[in-house]
Specification:
Radius of gyration: 18 Å
Structural class: alpha+beta
Number of strands: 16
Low-confidence stretches: none
Number of helices: 10
Order of helices and strands: EHHHHHHEEEEEEEHHEEEEEHHEEE
Strand content: 25-35%
Strand order of the largest sheet: 1-4-5-6-7-9-10-11
Distance between the termini: 27 Å
Largest sheet: 8 strands, mixed
Mean pLDDT: 96
Shape: globular
Helix content: 25-40%
């Protein structure tokens, strides 16, 4: 997996992402069925209003999107649409599975990043030192702003993101823009406050923890309401809403999502007294179900997704430690520490 180091401002960051994305965007993303469906929204009132909202509320992120468009030699509208994909359509491959652990001497967040296998050679880790805002490290998809997969920042906050397939939408900040803005949060309280005080579109689930409180939380954030529960001792999530106070929210649950949630709950209960990084890696590599496993590598996966990377964040005396694993690796291919 490539690691890209960056120093500069928002526009320059977007420009770099766009330059790295140009080939795969032209060759695979733009001709895809999912992108074709997105283009139907290009002249809609929803898209026009959201464009104005992002520019007004998140000018730095708007500049990043402009940079991506310039770097990839694409119209700005196409890049913004791509970064609204989960708000508008449900046919683009995005899944993921997460674990949050808060025990007496252990705080841990772990995650399988599941996505389009055609993008495997084009995703990367981005270590960004920002001239105007918070430094961070994030997994990045082509032509996409950072922060909607797994990431951590200089304050010692880490979060992972799971796709939620809503059947409704409203005018608000696109969920990927919202997640990018959450990379500015100093702790989970600021993270939740930012979600609750914003008008949002779409939905994401977050597993989040920070060095200040050393407590993992499971946060479901459809546009209708924000629900958070402490991940104590263990909470698992497989990309559909499971918090009971959000039962009223209409959503699509795929067979893979349902199967992974059931299996994760079984394993979470089985290991609840013995969690550590190796147990998390073992769970996230589980292939107990032949057709609908947690660890997804099949060419005929029903959601057209494969596990592209696994991330494990631990919060220890020396600080926040991020370890990233490629799908077949037993050892981390990337490690970074944010010191206390």
């Amino acid at each position: 997996m490539k690691t890209i180091e960056f120093d500069g401002n928002h526009y320059e960051l977007g420009l770099r992402i766009g330059q790295l994305s140009k080939d795969i965007f032209d060759r695979h993303i733009k001709p895809s069925k999912g992108f074709e469906e997105l283009t139907r929204w290009k002249s809609s009132d929803w898209f026009n209003e959201v464009t104005k909202l992002v520019e007004l509320k998140c000018p730095g992120i708007f500049a990043e999107l402009q940079g991506i468009a310039d770097g990839a030699s694409q119209p700005f509208e196409d890049i913004l649409l791509w970064n609204c994909r989960g708000d508008l359509v449900n046919c683009i491959p995005e899944g993921c599975t997460s674990i949050g652990v808060t025990q007496s001497e252990l705080t841990l967040v772990a995650h399988n990043e599941d996505g389009d296998p055609e993008l495997k050679e084009h995703v990367f880790l981005l270590k960004a030192r920002m001239a105007e805002s918070t430094d961070f490290t994030s997994f990045v998809y082509p032509a996409s702003i950072p922060g909607h997969s797994f990431a951590m920042n200089e304050h010692g906050l880490a979060f992972t993101v799971n796709n939620i397939r809503l059947t409704d939408k409203q005018v608000g900040l696109p969920r990927m823009v919202m997640s990018r803005s959450l990379l500015e949060s100093k702790d989970f309280k600021a993270f939740i406050s930012a979600l609750e005080s914003s008008t949002r579109s779409g939905a994401f689930h977050y597993t989040v923890a920070d060095l200040t409180y050393k407590k993992a939380l499971s946060i479901e954030a459809p546009f209708q309401k924000v629900s958070s529960i402490e991940a104590c001792p263990v909470v698992v999530h497989a990309n559909h809403l499971v918090h009971h106070d959000l039962d009223f929210v209409p959503q699509i649950i795929t067979e893979s999502s349902a199967s992974r949630q059931i299996r994760m709950e079984e394993l979470g209960y089985a290991y609840k007294e013995a969690f550590d990084s190796q147990v998390c890696l073992k769970i996230l590599r589980d292939k107990h179900h032949d057709v609908l496993p947690i660890f997804r590598q099949a060419a005929d996966d029903p959601d057209e997704e494969n596990t592209l990377a696994t991330a494990i964040f631990t919060f220890e005396e020396q600080g926040l430690i991020m370890n990233v694993f490629e799908p077949q690796s037993e050892e981390a291919v990337y490690t970074e520490v944010v010191k206390n």
